Amino acid sequence: MARVGDRIIARIVDLTPEWEGVGLFGTVGTKDAHDVANSVGMEKSQYPQDDGEIVRVPGVWPGDIVECALLARSRHHGHWFGRAMRIVAHGVTREKGVCPVQAACGGCAALTIPYKAQVAQKRARLEALFPGAGFVAAPQPLGYRDKVKWIVGPGSDGRPTAGFYRHDSHRFLPVSDCAVLVPALARLARQLPEVIADVPPYNEADQTGLLRAILAKCTSGGEILVTFVVAARPDPDMVARLSAAGTLEGVAGVTCNLHPDAGNRLTGHEEWTLAGADFVRENDHSAAYLVNATCFSQAHHSMARAAVDTIVRALHPVTEPVLDLFCGVGPIALALAADGHAVTGVELESRAIELARQADPSLSWIAADVNDIEALPTPAGDFALVVNPPRQGLSADLLSWIEAQPIRILVYMSCNPQTLVRDAARLTATSFTLDSATGYDMFPQTPWFETVALFFRQEKS
Fold it and tell me: Which of 28, 112, 115, 157 could form a disulfide with 94 if both were Cys (CB 3.0 to 4.6 A apart)?
C-alpha cells in the first residue's frame, strides 16, 4: 500500500482540465512503468504493489513516465497528489524553456510543450464535450498577450518591481520578462521598475504601503494604457512619480485606480487620469471600439477577431434585433451594428458601458446586472441573443429567462467549456438545438480557450 513520502513511478495517461497530469501506478496497466523502474535502478520494494492507483502531478504531459513523490491523498476521491522529481521518459519532446520562472509562476503550464501537442489536447477536450466541434489554433503562440495585470512587490534588490503571485499562493514573484506578452508590454515591464523605484509597494499582510498593482493594455496599433492601483490616495510627490509612466515609449495614457479595501478584487471603483488619455480606440475588429486598462477586453487580438467574425457571420443576415448580454466595452455589439443589426448591450460595469456609449451613442447601452432578469430589456417579437458570461457560466434564473423568451438564435461565447456544456445540456433539453461549437485558442501555453456555440430555437411540433 502506497504511503505519503513514497517515491513511485507513474505513467501519465491524461490531463485534468487545469492540465495537471493524471498518472497510473501500481499493478493496473503499468508493466511498462515497472520496466522503467527496473531500468533506472529502483528496487521493487520501492514500488507500491496494490490494485493500481491514480496520482495527480503538475508539470507533466500524457505519455511521460515520471518518478514522483506522493504528497497527500484525497479523502473524498481517493487519488494521490504528487510532485514530479524527474521525468524518466518523455511522452513528447520538450522545447527549450523560454521562461526562468515558469514553475514558480504557473501561469503558462505548457510553455515547453510543442504547440501542436497543446492544440491536440484542447481539440480533443472540446470534441469530447461537443462531438464534431471545430478548433482554431493561434497563429502566434508566444508574444500574443496584449493585456496584463502585474502585482507590485520587492525585487531581489529590495526595490519595488512588477511581477505575479507564485503558483497557488499570494507570495510575490518578481518577473522581469514574460514570453507570452506582446513585445511592447514586455518592454514596458523592463521600464516600470525605474518609474516605481521610490513608491512603497502595498503589503497585503499588514496593509501598509501604497502601490498594489499595475494594469496595462496594448492596442493592435501599439498604443499602451497603464493603470496604477493604489491602496490610498497618493500625495503630490507620488502622483508625479506615477505620472512619469506617461513618458515611456508607446504609453498613450496613465490612470490611477483607488482600491483601499481588503479582498481579492484587483481594482476599486474610483479612477482618474494622471497623464494623457484614459482610453484609446482599438481597430483590431471589423468595427472599432474603445478600451482602457481596467475594463474587460480580450487579451489576444487575432483570436478575438476570429471569434467575433464567427458571431457576425452566424447572425448574418438575420433581421431581428440583437440583445448582447455581458457586452463589456461592446466589441461584439459594435461589430453586429456595423453589419446592420439593431443592437442593445447590457453590462454591469458602468465604466465599460460608458466606453461603449462613447464608441457609438446611437446604440442602446444599459448598465445593469445581467443576472437580475427583472432589469433586462425585452425586444418586441423574435430576437437574437448573444451571451459572453464569466467562467461560472449562466445563472439558473438567466437560463429560465432565455428559455421563456422568443429567441430564435442564441450565440454563446464561453471561456469555460465545462460550464458551457452544462448550460448547453439545459438549453437543448427543451428549447434549443445546438448547431455548432468552435474553439479558439485565445490563451496558448495554458489549458484555457474560448468557445463559440450557436443554438437555434427548436421547431414546435
Answer: 112
Q: Per-residue pLDDT for 449 more than 90? A: yes
User: How far from the centroid of its chain's Cα atoms is residue 362's Cα?
Assistant: 31
Residues ≥6 apart with Cβ < 8 Å to 292: 217, 225, 227, 255, 278, 279, 280, 351, 355
* Of the options 3.30.70.930, 2.40.50.140, 3.40.640.10, 3.40.50.280, the CATH number for the domain spanning 7-91: 2.40.50.140
Residues 6+ apart with CB under 8 A from 400: 373
Q: Label residue 387 left, alpha or beta by phi (over 0 means left) and psi (-120 to 50 means alpha).
A: beta
Is the pLDDT at 74 greater than 70, yes or no?
yes
- Which grid cell is 299? 487579451
Q: Is beta strand 364-367 parallel, antiparallel or unpaired with respect to 343-347?
A: parallel
pLDDT band at residue 44, thresholds of 50, 70 and 90? very low
Which one of the listed residues 108, 295, 327, 415 is annotated catalytic?
A: 415
- Which backbone phi and psi does 452 adopt, to 5 degrees? -110, 115
Sheet holding 270-276, edge to edge: 172-174, 160-165, 147-154, 211-218, 224-230, 251-258, 270-276
Q: What is the DSSP secondary-structure string of 308-329?
A: HHHHHHHHTT--S-EEEES-TT
Q: How large a percentage of the chain has pLDDT more than 90?
A: 83
Residue 218 among the catalytic residues? no
The DSSP annotation for 170-220 comes to: --EEE-S--TTB-HHHHHHHHHHHHHTTTSPBPBTTTTB-SEEEEEEEE-T
Rounded distance, CA 155 to CA 174, Å?
6
| Calculated CA dihedral for residues 67, 73, 79, 81, nearest 10 degrees | -40
Give the residue from 403, 412, 454 showing the smallest Cα distance to 433: 454
The top-level CATH class assigned to 300-457 is alpha beta
HSE-CB for 447 with a 13 A CA cutoff: 17
